[in-house]
Amino acid sequence: MKRTTNLIAGVILVLLVLSISSCNKKEEQQNVLEQKEQYSNKEKELKDKEDFLKIKEEQLKQWEERLKKADSTLLASGKDSEKLSKDSVLTSKDSAKLKEKALKEKKMEEKEKELNKRLDNPKIAVNDYLEYIQRGVGDSKTFDANMKKASEVWENRTSDSFKKNYKNVKKFTVVEEPKVLSQKGGNASVKVKVKQSMVGADGKETEKESVITYNLIADKNGKWKIKSNLVK
């Protein structure tokens, strides 16, 4: 009976040792798998970083090439009619200043174009023109200056033509505000109703009401200019 008890105890002890050993092996295998996964993740992260650095290096190389081309262009266009001698070759500092100036001018030009596209429209151009006429007619001291400004709103008109047309006008009034009739691309039409009081050759003052349609065109900067008009 005692031997049987010892035998059972021995079997239980062996099973217990095997169970513990099996658990340890599973933990070791789990640790190995986790280490492999961590290693794989680190490898992937390292490869991604290497790829990213290669892309940045390529971008830097392209940027340097563009700078070299810009320097060459600035040097070549320094003077139209003169060749640069060895003594007048630009230093790197001079080249950088020229390049910075060219970039600033380019940005200002683009900003001006964008501003004109956003804020300027054919109705504003006509409003400005009519305002100059009203100011000139209402104040003889500023007549010439305002006729000159009025001519600048047109595509191709001199201030002398406005001086001649409005020298006998004593009063100029906008009866109905300008209204855009059509606008497509760089062309537009704006209609406005005005009233003028004029002094004739006999010295008598007369009033005349007119409906004027202005045809406008946008210049290369997107600014509207009056091309022609039709009076009814």
Task: Describe this protein's structure.
Helix content is 59%, strand content 22%. By secondary structure, it is an alpha+beta fold. Strand 1 (169-184) and strand 2 (187-199) form a beta hairpin. Helix 4 crosses helix 5.
On the 0-100 scale, what is the average pLDDT? Answer: 77
Percentage beta strand: 15-25%
Q: Which class of secondary structure composition applies to the elements?
A: alpha+beta
Individual helix count = 5
Q: Termini distance?
A: 135 Å
> What assembly state would you assign to the polypeptide chains in this entry?
single chain
Largest sheet: 4 strands, antiparallel
Number of strands: 4
Strand order of the largest sheet: 1-2-3-4
Low-confidence stretches: none
Helix and strand arrangement:
Blueprint lengths: L1 H75 L15 H28 L2 H17 L4 H10 L6 H8 L2 E16 L2 E13 L5 E14 L5 E8 L1
Antiparallel strand pairs: 1-2, 2-3, 3-4
Characteristics of this structure?
single chain, 232 residues, 5 helices
Question: How is this structure best summarized?
Answer:
This protein is of the alpha+beta class.
